[in-house]
Write a structure and sequence with these properties.
Blueprint lengths: L1 H16 L4 H9 L4 H38 L9 H27 L3 H6 L9 H34 L9 E5 L8 H19 L5 E7 L9 E6 L5 E8 L4 H5 L3 E4 L7 H6 E5 H6 L19 E6 L14 E4 L3 H5 L3 E3 L7 E6 L4 H15 L8 E2 H6 L3 H35 L1 H9 L4 H35 L10 H27 L4 H4 L3
Parallel strand pairs: 4-8, 6-7
Antiparallel strand pairs: 1-10, 1-11, 2-10, 3-4, 3-9, 5-7, 6-8
């Protein structure tokens, strides 16, 4: 898109600058130059300019490529092999000839008699085509502006959405548990190991709550367990092993029944909590006292229903979930186990506001006291959640960069078109001023057509951007609405850019002495 804008812009600026070359063309034609020679000359100028740009482009790529790879999560290399150079040269030559062909035809078509007599006014003809070219630039520019605003709105929506738990002031501490054993034994030993540090941290006044869990909120998903019922229907639910303080630590709402109770042996052995999505998926009218509808699971009982919370990325809807103190319950009847994230036991520590950074050394001291020799590591939950949307954030940065380039290129194109058309209307505006038009009226007359051009471009770009961005937003189970405000903002930015681009020429012409435009009449 940016390359297309640049090509259109090159055509527009070349035509606008042709005003200074009319005498050159007239003299060359009068001494015998034919049209094909002039076309060849102007095309070669375009090619030379394009290859100079290629050189600067390669230098810029050398510096920018590492940053682009980081944003796009790619491994592109700076390749100057024979094949790559051939592609660069071919692409540059193609763009140069494509962008330079039309200006070459226009410039070589000037009639020398009119030029040398001063009767040729550059800009008076082919105005419609130039307006279409600049209009096309603004369609693409507004499309990119709109896309950038929608992406930013969606990212802000995801960052500010109520996830069903309080993500602020939470620190996640992974524990080291030997991995040379089965998953169930690893989870059981990890829960027992975490209890030692939990009791120590609960004595710290600045720490409000501590809990133990087998999964965090980073990229990936919690344990996904599936089974096939007697009717050969596949069912699945997500599973997390937690301690009795989990809901309290994360501020998750309990809708029905009760929470796990510390010291309750029945809860430790056979109790489970489920979410609203689980109740709906398994059609449980009175879930309290029920069980997972399959006899293969170990003895258990649903003691409570929690409000749905987003334990996975907002790309996904809230799926059925089971929370249990005993990890064996869920795995006992599952025939399909899928674990995409690390199930190593972790401590969730809620710290009082304002104490996050200064509490880390104290937490590390307690950790080293409880587990001497184990590596200390931590994550802030709110920052961990942001990594789930790193790809969208990076895409937003890339599109924003492209949008800035598009705005600059579009403004340059409009600036060139304004210079071309203002020259064509010089005498008209001089006559208007002689007949009493004020400088403000002249400036308004000159600017009106460009603002109309931007509004038309906005109208054309709205269905395009809506279609493309709706498709992108469909990747999220939870999405913001596009809204009319996005297009109002895009229109405002576009009109502001247009005003900046044309104001110099329109004001200059409006303030010009009309005698300068009519002295030869």
């Amino acid at each position: 898109l940016v390359l297309l804008l640049a090509s259109i812009n090159f055509i527009t600026i070349t035509l606008a600058k042709s005003l200074g070359r009319t005498r050159e063309i007239g003299v060359r034609k009068s001494v015998g130059a034919i049209k094909s020679q002039l076309v060849f000359q102007f095309l070669m100028e375009s090619v030379v300019l394009a290859f100079i740009s290629l050189g600067f482009g390669l230098i810029i790529v050398w510096f920018v490529l590492p940053m682009f790879n980081e944003l796009a999560q790619k491994g592109l290399t700076y390749d100057l092999s024979l094949l790559s150079i051939s592609i660069y040269v071919s692409l540059t030559l193609f763009v140069a000839l494509l962008a330079g062909f039309y200006p070459a035809l226009v410039l070589s078509g000037f009639k020398p008699t009119k030029i040398l007599k001063g009767d040729l006014t550059v800009g008076s003809g082919r105005q419609s085509l130039r307006l279409v070219m600049v209009g096309a630039q603004f369609v693409v520019t507004i499309f990119l502006i709109t896309s950038t605003l929608i992406m930013r709105k969606q990212l802000e929506y995801m960052q500010n959405r109520n996830l069903g738990y309080d993500k602020e002031h939470l620190i996640m501490l992974p524990l080291s548990v030997p991995g040379n054993m089965g998953m169930l034994q690893q989870l059981t030993d990890g829960m027992d190991k975490g209890t030692r540090l939990k009791l120590m941290l609960e004595q710290v006044p600045e720490i409000t709550d501590v809990s133990i869990t087998s999964h965090d909120f980073g990229p990936g998903s919690w344990a996904n367990l599936g089974y096939t019922d007697e009717d050969q229907t596949e069912h699945h639910f997500f599973y997390n092993t937690v301690d009795p303080n989990y809901l309290k630590t994360l501020n998750i709402d309990l809708l029905l029944g009760r929470d796990f109770e510390l010291g309750n042996e029945a809860d430790r052995r056979r109790s489970i909590l489920v979410n609203e999505a689980f109740v709906k998926a398994f059609s449980l009218e009175n879930p309290i006292g029920e069980r997972i509808p399959n006899e293969r699971f170990d003895d258990h009982e649903i003691i409570g229903v929690v409000k749905d919370f987003n334990f996975a990325s907002l790309h996904m809807p809230v799926d059925p979930l089971v929370l249990s103190v005993n990890p064996a319950i869920g795995f006992s009847g599952a025939t399909n186990v899928n674990v995409n994230s690390d199930p190593t036991t972790k401590l969730v520590v809620r710290v009082k506001p304002g104490n996050m950074e200064k509490m880390l050394p104290l937490i590390e001291d307690k950790f080293n006291e409880a587990y001497p020799g184990d590596p200390f590591d931590y994550n802030f939950v709110d920052q961990q959640l942001e990594t789930q949307y790193e790809a969208e954030q990076n895409l937003g940065k890339i599109v924003t960069s492209a949008t800035v380039l598009a705005i600059i290129i579009g403004a340059l194109g409009l600036f060139a078109l304004a210079m071309l058309t203002m020259n064509a209307r010089f005498k008209e505006m001089s006559i208007r001023k002689v007949l009493g038009a004020s400088s403000a009226n002249v400036s308004l007359i000159l600017s009106k057509s460009y603002f109309i051009l931007v509004l038309v471009a906005l109208i054309i770009s709205i269905p395009l951007s809506y279609q493309v961005m709706s498709s992108w937003l469909n990747e999220f189970a939870y999405r913001s609405d596009i809204g009319i405000s996005i297009y109002i903002m895009a229109g405002f930015i576009s009109i502001l850019v247009a005003w900046i681009a044309i104001s110099y020429h329109s004001i200059k012409l409006a303030l010009n002495n009309p005698v300068n435009g009519l002295r030869t009449e």
